[in-house]
Amino acid sequence: MCKTNSTLVGKVVLITGGASGIGYEAAKNLAKRGARIILASRNVTKLIRARDSIEHITGNSNITYRRLDLASLESVRNFTTATLQSEHRLDVLINNAGALGLPDRLTDDGLNLTMQVNYFGAFLLTYLLLPLLRSSAPSRIINSSASSMYIGHIQFDHWNNINRYSDVEILANSKLAVSLMTAELTRRLKGTGVTANTFDPFVVRDTEILNNLPELTRNISKLFVNMVGQDKEDVGQQIAYLAADVSLESTSGVHYKFCKEWINHWLVSDRKLTRKLWQESKRVVKITAVEDWEENIV
């Protein structure tokens, strides 16, 4: 499934959540293709272990890592500043990191924790890196969504509320926001050589995504995942296919599952909604005048 002979020698790939799970598997696959890999995660110990493992397995020593905590807008800004200062190009941005079952609380930024980890952090990261992606075109943005998005809904006055949503509901809302953001990215980046697509990993065996759930729920969920889930190596290969295959260089605004074009959420066609989500997201993450490259384009 999703096999490609495409290489990425001379290309730079940044992948969030790259220290473990499907992010690690995708990074390993892309490293074998010759890419320079930037691993991003909040756990430095896991990042070092992942870097060393990928170097040993692939023979590619051009692997680096940077700490990134999506639950902190300051961390995202520090990460992007360091990346922009050290990297001359960025060919692929893979927003893979995500979480389920996080505490129902606000972050220090005043945002719903799950919404920030799964959406707002990725939005800010993507927005701040877009000038580099544009100057590196043709380049790609690949965003992780989920089937839960189909039951999600966006209410801008309430999307950061606590004590309002269940774990499944807030996950669904965050993943719907990702899909709407990607649709708006596709429209705003038309003609720039930067593409934006989403993928649904379905359910994946042997990852840490269920670790935050209560024990009983976690154990029941693991039984289901072990029965129907995909191997994380296979999902990593699917992500690598979207990142590398030459046939997808101009493909944008598509939702993928099992490496096939899949039915996207119907609201991605609502241009009024996606525009509002874009502007509200910029407001929520407090894009400054200096950061606002859209206003600074001559």
UniProtKB/TrEMBL annotation:
Source superkingdom: Eukaryota
Pfam families from the UniProt entry: adh_short (PF00106)
GO molecular function, one term: oxidoreductase activity
Keywords assigned by UniProt, alphabetized: Oxidoreductase
InterPro entries: NAD(P)-bd_dom_sf, SDR_fam
Protein name, entry field: Uncharacterized protein
Annotated organism of origin: Leptidea sinapis
Upper classification of the organism: Eukaryota, Metazoa, Ecdysozoa, Arthropoda, Hexapoda
